[in-house]
Write a structure and sequence with these properties.
About 30% of the residues lie in helices and about 25% in strands. By secondary structure, the protein is an alpha+beta fold. The protein has 2 domains: about 1-105, no CATH class; about 115-254, no CATH class. The relative contact order is 0.12.
């Protein structure tokens, strides 16, 4: 049971898988069930070293948790083993839960979380990486309109949301999900999932020898009367309280 190094190419840590990596190991149904197990705190033991991740996951036999091990073998592939009877796919829901628990324990970078807002953003980055599947729908490469769909088991969250990407370096992006509308962070897990996908695509292009060039994106937005800036721009493009439209420009390295 393995996933090739190509499928893990963007991960410095081979065990830190995003939604693409998890779906290389298991079907959407198994990934959703594994994420549900993680959310239900069924991973009761977790450990890791440079070569493997191991966990005990409570399942249908709560007094005898399933033992999971994910190991990096000599061919730079991940091999997954679990003592549950599931053998239809490379990974079972217990292994997915273990990988999700491992990801939740890792730092996202060198910056220390210093406020509740930073912690809230970091949480959305983690959930976006592991729980959201995205697809570019329209517009320039990387920018424009994306569709974002959650892999979590909640029925309401399975509907696709529309994400508009205007910048990969500033919080000028919008999403049609309820969380973005109320959290005042300027982001959500769907936006973070798209930004993660864009970053992966750009790294692949750099490795393939494609050079970067500046790309300017010009769009029309409305400044809300509250002064909350682009974060308050509705996804449907309508103005707020009769505010006048303004032309904004974002310059990114493509």
């Amino acid at each position: 049971m393995s996933v090739t190094e190509m499928q893990l190419e963007t991960a410095v840590d081979p065990f830190l898988l995003d939604s693409e990596g998890l779906r290389a190991l298991a079907s959407d149904a198994v990934v959703r069930r594994g994420l549900a197990y993680f959310a239900e705190q069924r991973v009761i033991e977790l450990g890791w070293d440079a070569e493997r991740v191991w966990a005990a996951v409570s399942g249908s036999r709560p007094r005898m948790p399933y033992q999971v091990e994910i190991r990096r073998d000599e061919d730079d592939e991940l091999s997954v083993s679990c003592d549950c009877p599931f053998e239809l796919e490379p990974a079972c829901k217990h292994a997915i839960a273990a990988l999700a628990a491992y990801a939740a324990r890792q730092d996202l970078g060198d910056a220390e979380i210093s406020s509740a807002a930073d912690e809230a953003v970091a949480d959305r980055v983690r959930r976006g990486r592991a729980q959201v599947v995205v697809e570019h729908v329209a517009g320039e490469p990387d920018f424009g309109t994306w569709s974002a769909r959650s892999l979590t088991p909640s029925g309401a969250s399975l509907r696709p949301y529309r994400v508009l990407i205007r910048s990969t370096s500033e919080r000028m992006n919008t999403c049609s999900c309820p969380d973005f509308a109320v959290n005042l962070l300027g982001t959500c897990k769907h936006i973070e999932a798209v930004l993660h996908r864009i970053a992966k695509s750009r790294r692949r292009k750099r490795r393939a020898g494609a050079g970067e060039r500046p790309r300017a994106v010009v769009f029309v937005a409305w400044d809300p009367a509250t002064g909350s800036g682009v974060h308050g721009v509705p996804v449907d493009g309508r103005g707020v309280d009769g505010a006048e439209p303004a032309v904004r420009c974002s310059v990114d390295q493509y």
